[in-house]
User: Fold this.
Amino acid sequence: MPILSGVKWLVLVAAVWVSSTGGASAGAPRVVVLRLDGAVQPASLRYVERGLQVAAERGAELVVLELNTPGGTLVSLRSMTAAITRSQVPVAVYVTPSGGRAASAGFFLLIAADVAAMAPGTNAGAAHPVTLGGRPGTGAEKEKSPDAEIAKAVEDAAALARSLAAERGRPVEWAEKAVRESLSYSADEARRHGLIDVVATERSALLERIDGRTIRRFDGRTHVLGLGGAEVSTIERTVAERVLMVIGDPQVAYLLLLLGFLGLMVELFSPGAVVPGIAGGISLLLALYAFSVLPVSGAAILLIAAGIGLLVAEAFVVSHGLLALTGVASFALGSLMLIDTPIPQWRIGLGLVLPTAAVLGAASLLLLSQAWRLRRAKPRSGLEAMIGEIGEMTSGIDASRGEGTVFVHGEYWTATSERPLPGGARVRVERVEGRRLRVEPAGVTSS
Assistant:
């Protein structure tokens, strides 16, 4: 009986321990972390929208969007701010790590959040819209580009900043200055102007600072954040999102465009290779997808296409390399004009254009030399392939007959010659005359 009582006590203690630890775990608030490091583009929008949906399904108390971005496209920005303001779960946008930034489009994400936070050593702002890929026009076009269009973009962005700041209870004037005057704020400056709520050195410090804070949701409801003992989990990008994020990078898209053209050129100059053509077609399609969501210049695309066209024309027109040289120059000039933006990560500069132009030129010369070598090579099929072949006379040619029979190339042919040839003599085919072969003795060179 004493042993049985001891066992009961052990079971009771174990049950209480499991209940207490399990109950605490089950009742702990959940915090979901998303990481947006890079340009705001369709792939990052897809990732953030999925993360917010997963957080809602898990019943999370808070989503922390850790942000470090140079900016992005206006279309993706508007969709992302809409996703944040409509989120069922409160969203804290946290600019991190030290040295990071929420520039341009990132500034709008910061002020759109339920909780705006920055790490020391970060900055936010410089949200003035810029023309991407455009060039000043003339005449009627100049009224639309660039001054009129940029003025419209500034007014639109300023209105968005005012709307987001007003709804979140942040000072409208300082938010608007980031757009109209391209002001950029350090973490302390942003906190002093009321644009952000917290300056925190790390995520755990952020969660501790905002635990118990009452926030006002975008729809007007209030919510008290309970983050004590929160379970933090990070949602990583899927393979598809990672691939789309890489493809959406302008540098990668440009290289895919180059690989696509090279693959198609190899297939054009070497018909039947198949693999280069397929790889080039796929690369070209991926590049076109990326450029469909990036602001590119139509004139630059035409210059690049013209350059490729000139390189192909070199294979059919004897210009002694002039067309190829012009084609490479056109390709390089179009590449430099392809994307025009102050965002360094999106620029296609000389450091990338010159090597790719050199590779394209070298590949073109190699393919052209191979094409010319094939043109000058002796034919290997048809009647022209008979010229120069050595055969044997099976019936001789004398002055009375004027023709005989020769066995050459595995076949019997009617042969003619200017001189008598006995049967069994070895002869060389000089030319083809209709269905007859003009032959000479194998050791004689025709004049």
